[in-house]
Amino acid sequence: MPGAIHAEGLVKTFGDVTALDGVDLDVPEGTVLGLLGPNGAGKTTTVRVLTTLLRPDSGTATVAGVDVLEHPNEVRRSIGLSGQFAAVDEYLTGRENLQMVGRLYQMRARAAKERAAELLDRFHLADAADRPARTYSGGMRRRLDLAAALVVAPPVMFMDEPTTGLDPRNRQALWDVIKELVSGGTTLLLTTQYLE
Ligand SMILES: Nc1ncnc2c1ncn2[C@@H]1O[C@H](COP(=O)(O)OP(=O)(O)OP(=O)(O)O)[C@@H](O)[C@H]1O
Ligand SMILES: [Mg+2]
Questions:
Q1: Superfamily of structural domain 5-192
Q2: Is the model's pLDDT at 196 over the cut of 90?
Q3: Fewer CB within 10 Å, N or C, the chain?
Q4: Which numbered atom of ligand 1 lies nearest the CA of 47?
């Protein structure tokens, strides 16, 4: 039986650059796959194909049992994504950013508020929670973006270089949250430059 994330023969070229040259992967449900590779190896391109943001030239993929090319909208309902570059609303505070994500996922206002407070705490953002995100440092912005990806626990999560720019304490906080997610049954594909 194919795993929660399954890809066969993914090929993607950009002009004369072959970004993906026949990628196969299979991630069993409730496990973590780390994609490790040098700059330009095709990690982000792989994540973009699997999260329906980019169509491959050839190959097939399923996520949570759903065909990525045939039913992208259905796939989007089962996944969470934190991209390589932080995507936060600069004009909202950290707290408002997280509450907004909760509300977009149809959480009740009270539950969204509680989840936001919990994540702000875990990622050591409580002191800055009520400042607009545009005043955040690079690492703070990164942590807010990760927290936003973790507001709900979708069955399948993708994280593109989640540890980049994090200090050791916050890297540990991230690994702790990830362990909880995975022990709750989430399947995770992440990319990283860190061998450990
Ligand atoms: N939209 C694009 N247009 C042209 N070339 C692209 C595009 N996206 C990716 N590429 C090329 O495809 C190759 C793989 O890029 P990709 O971003 O997937 O690498 P990566 O493994 O994520 O690298 P990094 O570690 O630097 O994030 C690179 O040569 C890159 O220049
Ligand atoms: Mg990348």
A1: P-loop containing nucleotide triphosphate hydrolases (3.40.50.300)
A2: no
A3: C
A4: 18
